[in-house]
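TICKET #2291
ISSUE: user wants both folds in one file
ATTACHMENT 1:
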Amino acid sequence: MPSAAHTSLTGNRNFKRLWLGQAVSTTGDAFAFVAMPLLVLEATGSVVQMGAVTACACAGQVIASFFSGVAVDRLHRRFLMIACDVARLLLYAMIPALWWAGHPSVAAIYVVAGLGAAFGGVFMIGYFAAIPNVVDRADVPAANGRLQATQSLTYILGSILAGIITQEASAASALVVDAVSFGASAACLATIRLRQERAARDPAAPRAGAFTELAVGIRFLFGHRVLRALAVFQVGVALLASIGLTAAVIDLIVFRLRSDLAQGGRVVGVSLAVSAIGAVIGALAGGRIGRRVGLGVCTLAGTGLQALGLLLAGSMPTVLAVTAGAGMWAAGLTTRSVAATSLRQTSIPDGLLGRVTSASMSIVMGASMVGAVFVTRLAAQLGTARALTSAGFVLALITTAGVFTPLASTATPSRS
């Protein structure tokens, strides 16, 4: 039976502290999201360099996420997350320190982008393993919903504040906020306790090498009928650039409004705000719906909503339709994200949480990188409207196919 501290999110102090730390940290991430590209442009004046820095960060996150599962399943999870926060604090503080000292360095930007993303990848796997060790099993979807909704809100707030600071001060100054946010996250983590601070392992079992342990996680992923179906399903969704709030679909929505419909920055801003509101609603709904109809069904429903949003935005040449489509797409995205994440967390044994999660997420993130290139090139060939409708149609087909997989029969998580 779970202890009283874990029976409810309302009375769960550990969850509240984790929630607070991540709210501050994701606000800081929004500062970096705005400030880093501006800093590169300020230092180099090159769009190519901006893309190279982004690619460096993506590579660092994907590689680290893939191998971090072994560390999460071997080491003290909370201490590992705190170490990642401290490392990122020092890294992101280095750039403003160099700029203020009069020694701006493009090389430092690459180092911070790559290593910062790598430590972020390790932290992310530890964070996903920590949630089912902070809340009761039945509360995992609701916890993920609150965390995802908060992330969406803090990205909005953080982006607005980052824009003000970069304009009034500098892009380097904005990164100070990001550095401090990692310190706040580390401080919150230091005050919580996990049910399993270390992964549950058989003490009599000999410790294998890192690659052998990683292979165990991969075998479990593809040997589990539901997780295998989820991984294949999410790869298909990722190849259509429909995973992540910064996915290439957002770029197509902006281009559709600016180029196809000749709208200005104000309309684009309103449309993106509607998308953000949709993301918050979807995240909160995902936890509730997942507990009622099943996490797999909720995953499919969220993806279906994304498909409808893309079809609406691509087929109807009006600002209202494109804006509504963007909101539906974002709502479906976070609904699916909450359900899919919760499904993994409640299906994987504690001793394998890090390795199986890292293997799954690395595969999906790799597909997302390919999907970003594919969808933008599709838009260049067919036009934005046809690219959106084509992606929506294929996404609807993938959702329909998912109905005939084990995802459609997954039960709601029980309290354990």
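ATTACHMENT 2:
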Amino acid sequence: MTRPALRDDGVLVVGAGVAGLAAAKRLRKHGVPVVVLEATRRIGGRAWTSLPPELDGAVFDHGATWLHAADRNPLAALERDRLLDVDASRTERLFVDGRPATPAEQAGYDAAWERLETVVAPALEGPDRTLAEAMRPMQDDPWAGTIATWEGAIIAAADADELGVQDWRRNTLEGPNLQPPEGIGAFVARRLAGPVWLHTGVSRLDWGGRLVRAETARGTVSAAAAIVTVSTGVLAADEIRFDPPLPPDVEAAIHALPMGLLTKVALHAPDRAASGIAANSLLVRRDGRMTFNAWTRDRPYVTGFVGGRTAWSLAGDDRAAVALAVEELRAMLGYGVRLSGRALVTGWGVDRWHRGAYAYARPGDAEQRAALAGSFVGERLLFAGEACRIDGLAGTVGGAYLSGQDAADRLLAG
């Protein structure tokens, strides 16, 4: 492949996830030469849609699944009329001890969610602590564990006893939650795709001279500036060597935002009618380790979500992950749901180029998102991605998109 001409005023974008694609699109719109370097063989990063044979070729999102906070999500605004409103179409089913919850148990569950707001409010005023510590006053509530698992491991991809309550509160996502029919990854690829050097990982980034130089297996590429959009997990693992080393405050911000893990286990279940469960159902079990999105858009599978330490313990062991999902689903539906035995397990925990699902902050580190977003190293090196958002969209494709645009705008303003 012929290397494109790149003037000294051009920009390197490292990573072709949503943040990188958004930054590149913004810069190109303003006539700035851009080279996007991507280590993997595809674009989209953690927004990835496939049509796996294990699931009869049905649409499956390995990573991002929804466009959250759609009323302020710029990606949702692109095609609002054709997106499915998940909240409006979803039915929540609650289970206790292998049976549907009674009306009294459902009322207790609803009351526990209302109590959560009252209990956590005082913790937001003092020194930062874990979400688990903030929830301690409701430890005797039979639904406390279920809520902690949902808010921590499932939503934040980190257990409640590791997640800082300030970061949790800032990133409590509101609806509407929308889905494109072709999947988030396919939607992102269609809307944001541009020229990208695939299978071109950056091993070293030299920002000490007049130009930024990126060393790759395909040679060295230079430009006036670079926007680095890889995950904090990749940065913390030193997959890219920075020369000279990054300033201590930037290194501190990277390590203060570790990657959480959320794993999906999709169980092929083509006969929904036998289960008696409606399409687009959310299945929740008291003290369960997983929650399930069942037959979304009547696709022939049920997806279990497992996060935090449990997800990390299963990383790389698909057989164990499937066994857990089957156990958890049977604990709710018994043998009323017919499984074919085929399954798909996402692998973000063992993926060298992502090293997790999305970033979270431990107690005392919530401000490090702003610190990383505000870094402009040597006036030629910026960072962008979902970890950099402080507007409540951290961990989302909408947040990544805005972060990439913000980084591009800072270069354009300079």
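RESOLUTION: both attachments delivered.
EXTRA DETAIL ON ATTACHMENT 2: Residues 161 and 398 are 27 Å apart (CA to CA).
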